[in-house]
Amino acid sequence: MKETNYTINDRLFGPYLERMNFLNEISIDYPDAVSFGSGRPDRRFFSVKDIVSGFLSAGEGDDFFDDLGQYNKTKGIINDTLSALLKNDEGIDADPGDIILTDGAQEGMVIVINTLFDLSSGDDVLLVSDPAYIGFVGYAKILGVPITAVRRNGDSIDLDYLEESIVRLRKEGKNPKVLYEVPDFHNPTGEYMPLERRKRLLDLAERYNFLIVEDNPYGYFRYDAEKIPTLKALDGNGRVIYLGSFSKTLFPSIRLGYLVAGQVIDHKGRRVELVEELKKTKSFTTVNTSTLLQAMAESYLKRQNFTMVPACAPKVEACRVNRDTMLGALAEHFSGIEGVKWNRPRGGFFMTVDLPFEMTDDLLKECVEKYSVIVCPMSFFCLEEGAGANQIRLAFSNRTEEEIREGIKRLSRFVRSR
Amino acid sequence: MKETNYTINDRLFGPYLERMNFLNEISIDYPDAVSFGSGRPDRRFFSVKDIVSGFLSAGEGDDFFDDLGQYNKTKGIINDTLSALLKNDEGIDADPGDIILTDGAQEGMVIVINTLFDLSSGDDVLLVSDPAYIGFVGYAKILGVPITAVRRNGDSIDLDYLEESIVRLRKEGKNPKVLYEVPDFHNPTGEYMPLERRKRLLDLAERYNFLIVEDNPYGYFRYDAEKIPTLKALDGNGRVIYLGSFSKTLFPSIRLGYLVAGQVIDHKGRRVELVEELKKTKSFTTVNTSTLLQAMAESYLKRQNFTMVPACAPKVEACRVNRDTMLGALAEHFSGIEGVKWNRPRGGFFMTVDLPFEMTDDLLKECVEKYSVIVCPMSFFCLEEGAGANQIRLAFSNRTEEEIREGIKRLSRFVRSR
């Protein structure tokens, strides 16, 4: 095939967007390495065949299934069930009409970004913490949404720094309009935002007129912390758009997420129900989410009496054991190495380890090639130059205890070699 | 909930994007009306339960299914099967690595538009025919992609007018870089692009350095015409990105589409395999297409020996009968009405009817309320002011023969009343 001179979207070629491929490929290239790279759920708990069989054998006839085959409502067909689930498991009061079923939470992000940002203005700014989940930030980068990174300070995004950033942006004539955050067991750091900070963040959103996109894929995976209400449950002023997912609680290929948005806004003098505009965008991204997969999930949720908590208990427990195994192995193998420390996440799939040196691409490669362990540099999730340079993210969700012990041992050898 | 002053993407409020909702809602508001509005496939041929059961009972164990539960390759896992299908049914030689499985063809459009257009330049232009499928144009409008509409002349887009438009745009410093077209049984007109025009279109793409997005959801639904090769099958210069779908051949809630792009381009001096950039975007729109649905489709395709032609034969035949029933009813009920004419589509789901008056929103409502039949104004699919004003689109894919006869009778009463 001849090579044609043809330009495409130049933003695809920034180093940030290359990182997804780099990380995916390194685990394919080194299949024998212990990978703490990606935060996949543990397939031992999927029960895919049981869930599909249970759906099929629920006694419904051909007509029921053929109805499920057709195009259907843009917002989804199991919104009542989702509303009950959100009430039971999160204490969130969501009208079924304020919910949109999405093709995984990732599509929810695409819908939100396409709907909220006016790309022609150049003044709209997305606020994200540094580091932040690459899926949300990456899509915003593809579109060219201006992004301001806000540093974190321990348990969450730094709220003082956030407020200062907003004030500064407004002085510059910018419009910081959306903050993206994962308050429950943040990806990539593992942090759990304290209640007081949640309340203050909601106050800031009200004071400075921005919306918060609360992404909560890991909320069910809570180990030894009191439950803190989600921002959405605390939200009295319609400031939060909530993103949920079944990828971690059921299994990823169910490709089912949901967004909740009950806001009524005054858009240039026009009264707008935000969910109706998100729905409009959804009709142009994937028409509607597979009703077959929706019905499969609903059939399961009905059998669970509209709560995922008991069904998730063994998965959560296994993940907690993994976390503890990793903490134990770190304490064992890293004792006496100056400059290494780590956090103790109270839930989720990830922990943060500080190293006494910068984790460059070359060192990442050396770590895999010579020590056969894959880690994820924290800088991959960062926007500011130099941020996260001497940190790594370790995912403990998808390994056996033995693999975790072995992987941490290998990692300690690599660190000692520096 | 209080109403907040908050601006979102202003482009969502154009009249064009309101049309999808209008049409969806009118059929919900008038459930007793005969609807020729939407081009849904006929659910009598879905066999959803059989397809799911066949997949479950293929003798695979829990391990097989739990593997399917996990996140998987961004491009998809049934690319070999798709490659065989494209070879058998369309004569298209596609390397499995040049195929990306998508969440319906609609997601393919989102991926293509996000990947190809540099929104910051303002010079990139999308070329579409007037009228064109609202799903592609609508998403481009949400993003603010500049669009130039090219009139049609009978069997396809008007190629003389297309060439003139390109020359004019280039003189203005614009870069007309993508043409979207449905050569096989075009939505909304039903037209089938002749072979000579296909060849000339490919020549124009080569001469003026644009890519063609060929969208082919209806190609299997061919009634009494010789098979004309797709643009992709004729494409010797890597000018075509091909979009396919299982929504019409299997059923819509399988939400499975695919795009084929083997181009190698020189992007500002960088050698780029286009499919790898489309894959990058895909990883940020939906991560990957449900492997469960992919495997379900593959299980079916294997049982069909990698061709959909025999399985589609009864669906195609039923749709042909519907077309003939509609043509017969039109001839019967519209004889003697001045200014009414219609085309005879040789495939697909749609036909075009010319009326002796303009089909306004008010008249559309009157047609439903007083005559209980739903049609789709052609102007809904048009971009140029006044285009398609006295035409309607009739979908015949999803009605019984009796409904078609009754609906056309009602439509004739409405037209006679004007």
Largest interface: A-B, 93 and 93 residues
Strand order in the sheet with the most strands of chain A: 3-9-8-7-6-4-5
Number of strands of chain A: 16
Tally of helical segments of chain A: 14
Could you give me the name of the CATH homologous superfamily of the largest domain in chain A?
Type I PLP-dependent aspartate aminotransferase-like (Major domain)
CATH architecture of the largest domain in chain A: 3-Layer(aba) Sandwich
Percent in helix of chain A: 40-55%
CATH fold name of the largest domain in chain A, please? Aspartate Aminotransferase, domain 2
Specify the biggest β-sheet of chain A: 7 strands, mixed
Mean pLDDT of chain A: 95
- Please give the alpha-carbon distance between the first and last residues of chain A: 46 Å
Share in β-strands of chain A:
15-25%
Unreliable segments of chain A (pLDDT under 50, ≥5 consecutive)?
none
Question: Radius of gyration of chain A from the CA trace?
Answer: 22 Å
Q: What oligomerization state is this entry in?
A: homodimer
The dominant shape of chain A is: globular
State the domain count of chain A. Answer: 2
Top-tier CATH class of the largest domain in chain A: Alpha Beta
SSE series of chain A: EHEHHHEHEHEHEHEHEEEEHHHEEHEEEH
Structural class estimated from helices and strands of chain A: alpha/beta
